[in-house]
Design a protein that fits this description.
alpha/beta; about 375 residues; seven-stranded mixed β-sheet; single chain; about 10% strand
């Protein structure tokens, strides 16, 4: 039996080596594709091309008796690596520059994580980038004098104060911010600068390897035509842009960020106060609980000041957390009353609210859970 298994395993190893050679060849071709896209100013992420290619590969795989989900999983992982490769070329100017005549790009807070990310992207696109840090304010007028774009990338709690410190900018300079609150920064930018103004909210952390498929929310302030080049530039970087009014953005963020972060914080705080044995929880967990626990732990591996600023950024956030607390209490009351019928009725009400999204989320979560389970190792 051992000899028979070893012989088959040797054959599998040989096939795996062929797969590695093919993957290396594919990534080499991706590098060439990136060069062509760079010359012609094409986005690194082409959704129509991706969707049609995956559909064809699924059909071809199923004709060969290979599950379509398998080849799609493999190709999506390969494509993610491909997007990273297209974003990290050794070329000095990797992305096409959409506004070659722009004055320099000044990033206030450019030494922070998010500021460095955008500074690198602008540099890879051929723009001259400078930073303005706290110690540089005595020279701020000189640094900002010939700026074509000024980006404010500082913590939420000081964003408006920093904007208010800006002196007179060039009339055609584009002033933008990248904080997670939009209404107040936009108001302050419009007050201090008479030129074009744009509010941005990158819906990702500064540790992303590529902007492919990453969402950037855009809130127009003044003279949208003057900021179109920046929208085009971010699209070339691979970002997906979502245009929304500042007020609507801030209302949505109370749920997407403030409430979600607070609920995660509260659960992690509860685990710590209960003295939960994390290793035991992991050993006994289902894939879905392990994934949920990973998302909780992820929060506490990051900067607490950032999350405090996000949650405390507006009274609306606190009001939303209060309503969540009250509804949590309503749910607890059903349990304390042993109201099984009431619980089921409430469950069905929420199920109706989610509608067809529930089935879509079920499908997406199955893929995530399978991937999480694949990474488990029992040594």
């Amino acid at each position: 039996m051992a000899q028979e298994l070893n012989a088959l395993r040797d054959k599998i190893d040989a096939v795996d080596k062929q797969l590695l050679d093919l993957l290396a060849a594919r990534l080499a071709l991706v590098g060439e594709v990136g060069e062509v896209k760079s010359r012609h100013g094409l986005p690194i992420y082409a959704p129509d091309r991706e969707a049609s290619m995956l559909a064809r590969r699924r059909e071809e795989a199923e004709r060969l008796g290979v599950p379509g989900d398998l080849i799609e999983d493999v190709l999506r992982r390969v494509m993610r690596e491909s997007y990273i490769l297209e974003s990290t070329s050794d070329k000095e100017h990797h992305f096409k520059c959409m506004k070659p005549d722009l004055g320099k790009v000044v990033i206030i807070g450019g030494q922070g994580q998010l500021g460095r990310l955008f500074g690198n992207l602008f540099s890879l696109s051929g723009y001259r980038v400078e930073t303005l840090e706290q110690a540089d304010w005595p020279r701020a007028d000189d640094i900002l004098a010939d700026a074509g774009l000024v980006m404010v990338a500082v913590p939420i709690d000081v964003t408006c104060q920093v904007i208010d410190r800006l002196g007179k900018l060039p009339a055609d300079c584009l002033l933008v911010d990248v904080t997670s609150v939009k209404a107040a920064p936009l108001e302050h930018m419009l007050a201090v600068h008479k030129g074009p103004v744009l509010g941005l909210h990158p819906m990702f952390g500064p540790d992303v390897a590529s902007l492919a498929k990453q969402v950037i929310v855009c809130c127009q302030g003044r003279d949208g035509a003057a900021s179109q080049w920046l929208l085009d530039q971010m699209t070339i970087w691979g970002a997906r842009l979502q245009q929304v009014e500042a007020k609507a953005h801030d209302e949505a963020m109370t749920l997407i960020q403030a409430l979600r972060h607070f609920a995660t914080f509260a659960y992690g705080w509860h685990l710590s106060r209960e003295g939960a044995d994390l290793e035991r929880l992991l050993n006994l967990s289902s894939p879905i609980y392990r994934l949920e626990l990973a998302m909780v732990g992820r929060l506490f591996a990051q900067d607490p000041e950032l999350y405090a600023d996000i949650i405390l950024s507006s009274p609306q956030n606190l009001a939303m957390v209060r309503r969540y607390f009250e509804r949590f209490g309503e749910g607890l009351h059903l349990l304390e009353q042993g109201d099984r019928v009431g619980f089921i009725a409430a469950f069905r009400q929420v199920s109706d609210f989610f509608g067809p999204h529930a089935d879509q989320f079920l499908k997406e979560s199955r893929l995530l859970l399978a991937q999480a389970n694949d990474r488990r190792h029992y040594g």
